[in-house]
Write a structure and sequence with these properties.
Elements (H helix, E strand, L loop, with lengths): L7 H14 L16 H9 L12 H17 L6 E5 L2 H16 L5 E5 L5 H9 L2 E5 L9 H7 L4 E7 L11 H11 L2 E5 L23 E6 L12 E5 L10 E2 L7 E2 L9 H38 L12 E4 L11 E2 L5 E4 L6 H19 L1
Parallel strand pairs: 2-3, 2-4, 4-5, 5-6
Antiparallel strand pairs: 1-7, 6-7, 8-9, 10-12, 11-12
Helix pairs in contact: 2-8, 3-8, 4-5, 8-9
This protein binds ligand 0PR.
The site of ligand 0PR has 15 residues, from helix 4.
Length: about 375
């Protein structure tokens, strides 16, 4: 740090230059984040200085968190469900492991995750010294319930399933896994970080929420398909009492106990998540999701027309294909197996899909000739 500060002009000139070095979402086809909705940005700015870590100081903001949780309880078909906001999918998954481990009280706890699970579970298990058992997935990239059952023992404190996998956009057979969890008396967590904002707005979507017996918790991220600002996650639980195991005394705060992992917690991104849902309503959310799913189908059809087959027909707006290169400046990603992966986020509009297909078609044809 220099002894004397910069002028605001100099400072922002520098900051803008740095910001210009960042990629623009206009050509990013690999991200599960997107340009936040304008109402999210406005709400975020309005609540910039709020801290939900000391909610008694910000009762208005705290009410927005409560309202958001009530909306998700309704959306996930269990009005008595509880929940809280987090910084995203990783923190939500850590919190689930924390309460599962505390509740089970065994010496060498283990959890079972599908081979398709997000790497956040590896982090969480490492932090908490929990064994991570990996259940196989089928040719549709979905967790296999029978094979999952074989991995359960008396030390299993959680089964994890995914609604909208990071790599292939698939949803595990959650009703069968719920049955297994009930039979074995094990907590079933549904990682719906991505799909939790998509599946409720799709007709004939695979079941994943609290209407499925055995589902104990669901995580969902407003900073992904919720078009909210970063960082923003939500962890919903069927029975709020699971959080009691995580309570610590916070004597000098406005609330005397807390179960959240982080201390200071942004109210701004909670207000932003609230704003998007309040502004769009169910009709607007459905229109948003329908658009993303239509663009996903169009992309798959377009790529197949060039002779690049899909790997699978996804349950959410993540399209995967045999490995092919794409022309710059398009930014795509590849799965662990090397398959091309494109996430049709809201910024990947129909025009963007068409423009990508045109560029891809030209480069692909010229390479094949
Ligand atoms: N669970 C699932 C199913 C996820 O897909 C992700 C993240 C998480 C949990 C963890 O969420 P947080 O990253 O909010 O903690 N999925 C994306 C991924 O890892 C996140 C992402 C988004 C990565 C945008 C890159 C990017 O540009 O691929």
């Amino acid at each position: 740090m220099d002894a004397e500060g910069l002028s605001a002009d100099e400072l922002f000139c520098f900051l803008k230059a740095k910001r210009n070095e960042d990629r623009s979402y206009s050509h990013i086809l690999s991200s599960m984040c997107t340009t936040p909705h304008p109402v999210a940005v406005q709400a975020h700015n309005l609540f910039m200085e709020t801290n939900l870590g000391d909610p008694g100081l910000f009762p208005g903001t705290a009410q927005l968190e409560d309202r958001l949780i009530r909306w998700f309880a309704d959306l996930y078909q269990e009005p008595s469900a509880g929940g809280c906001t987090t910084s995203g999918g990783t923190e939500s998954n850590i919190q689930v492991l924390r309460f599962c481990k505390k509740t089970k009280q065994v010496k060498n706890p283990n959890i079972i995750v599908p081979a398709s699970a997000h790497f956040s579970f590896e982090k969480a298990c490492g932090m908490m010294d929990v064994e991570m058992r990996v259940a196989p997935i089928d040719d549709q990239y979905r967790m296999i319930p029978d094979a999952t059952g074989e991995l359960i023992d008396k030390n299993t404190c959680c089964i994890v399933s995914v609604a909208g996998t990071t790599e292939y956009g698939m949803t595990d057979p959650i009703p069968a896994l719920g049955k297994l969890a009930e039979q074995e008396g094990v907590h079933l967590h549904v990682d719906a970080a991505f799909g939790g904002y998509v599946l409720p707005f799709i007709d004939h979507a695979p079941p994943f929420d609290f209407s499925v017996p055995g589902v104990g918790s669901i995580s969902v991220d407003p900073h992904k398909m919720g078009m909210s600002t970063i960082p923003s996650g939500i962890l919903m639980v069927r029975d709020e009492r699971v959080f009691c195991n995580l309570l610590v005394e916070t004597p000098y705060l406005t609330t005397k106990q807390a179960y959240s992992l982080t201390g200071t917690r942004p109210g701004a991104s909670v207000a932003a998540a609230y704003a998007v849902m309040a502004y769009l309503g169910r009709t607007g959310m459905k229109a948003l999701v329908t658009g993303c799913m239509e663009n996903t189908r169009r992309l798959i059809e377009g790529m197949e027309a060039f002779g690049v087959p899909r790997k699978v027909t996804p349950d959410v707006n993540v399209a995967t294909f045999d490995h092919v290169s794409v022309p710059s400046p398009w930014t795509v990603s590849y799965t662990r197996k090397g398959d091309l992966r494109i996430v049709c986020m809201p910024h990947v509009t129909r025009d963007v899909v068409e423009s990508f297909l045109t560029d891809f078609g030209e480069s692909y044809v010229s390479h094949s000739n």
